Amino acid sequence: MADGGAGVVADGSVAEAVDHRGRPASRASTGGWKSASFIIAVEIAERFSFYGVSANLITYLTGQLGEGVAAAASALNAWNGTAQLLPLLGGALADAWLGRYRTIVLASLIYILGLGMLAFSTFLSSGGHHQCTTTAGGQACAPSTLQVAFFYASLYIVAVAQGGHKPCVQAFGADQFDQSDPKESVSRSSFFNWWYFGMCAGTAVTLVLLSYVQDNIGWGLGFGIPCAVMAAALAVFLLGTRTYRYYVTNAKGGLFARAAEAFAEWRSRRKAGPLEQASQERDRAAAEAPRFSAGVDEEDQAVVSNAGFVKEAKAILRLFPIWATCLIYAVAFAQSSTFFTKQAATLDRRIGDHFKVPPAALQSFISITIVVFIPIYDRVIVPVSRRYSGKPSGITMLQRIGAGMFLSLLSMVIAALVETRRLRVARDTGLVDKPNVPLPMSLWWMVPQYVLFGAADVFTMVGLQEFFYDQVPDKLRSLGLALYLSIFGVGSFISSALVSVIDRATTARGQSWFSNNLNRGHVDYFYWLLAALSALELLAYVFFAVIYKYKNKGAVHASVAG
User: Fold this and answer.
1) Is residue 197, in this structure, part of any structural domain at all?
2) Range list of H helices, 378-446
3) Whole-model pTM?
4) Cys-Cys crosslink for 401: which of 32, 46, 463, 473, Cβ 3.0 to 4.6 Å?
């Protein structure tokens, strides 16, 4: 797809953009915040639905499906990692063939199917021939093989749907702002802030509402509500069809398709003799020469040749150092829904005489911090920094990402200090071997580490989204956002592997850092390790960020104007 900021033409339309009928897109009647509002609403609904499944999934796996904690955690990590890596495929398909709009519609339909199947799977009977046991909560029966298989099939259909939905919706939303227009360029930077605001608002509502429904009313309704929400979101998205700006997908395919073509040609050229190779070069040059003109963007020219593939591949590869130096951030991010929650479960969580805060509900402080801080960042920090830097966004994308990584490092240091204090309280009160007895230490001790994670997300998460959208080749922006998501998919797998290796190593030496009795473990050591790795990562990131050269937008605009 072409860049949303390709340029302006004399009749008031946006260069390279078309409306829903294929006519040049009018700046006055298409794009901007009006169109972006439909798309942001869809993203809020999608995040509500996705976290409606994932946030409390381990409870369903260990409860209704009767899986052990280790098996459930392994299954959850595998599913989450897969869901974060599939956008690489979805983004490539959108950029190469389907286009973002059609991919969003198709992915939404798959989402509705998967969520509907999840809701239906909760009503499948376990069958009278399966073993049932009596527990404190009543009679529990082992699920049938059909129920488990149907559930996991449904779950991975949801992962496939996210793989198509996630990279395209945000790129399609950013496409509604013309980068060559000064006013719309500022709005596009603001769009990424409000986009993440909407995401976190949807997540916060999910953590409060759906967790209660699933735990206290029923899982069928708990999975059915996200299905209904996604259906309504698709309807809202379709309502905006007439207002969107569209960019034509290249018929020859995306980066992966051109990679295959280039490899096939390389193989054929290796088999050909020198004279035949020279003849092929002349034939190819003659065939391609008429396609070029002085008024066409250099990147558009490159797409039709192998040189175009090489250029795009290099443009993707130059992002790798930034991608790689953000992986430890993703590993630290993964702890907020695992060990942070385990810590909270051991503390005094009472508010008043009758209410006890669920441990997982503390994750809402991350979303609440983001919802509160994004308007402050957008309306206060950006204008003030813009005054000094002269940049529309106030600070550069890489500066923003680095600031968030530093806050994440601080969060891990505070988490380690809080855990050290928690262990000391357990020893001083004689509760080390009584893991089910709440420690006389308030859960509010843990709030700062959640708040710092939320503030870090405002900087790093949003910065990564904008960076990978902006710095990839213009026709591969869905793939660029998929690369951003893959950081957290790979980070999830790294976190799982790191925990497994450390668990085996420390268990062999006598006591696991991750003991089932957290009072005898040493999660604080793990946090210190992550803090040290985060510090090393930040140093490497700063080095690569300093030498990184941003894509030359000025040259692109000049070539279009020419």
Assistant:
1) yes
2) 382-389, 397-428
3) 0.68
4) 463
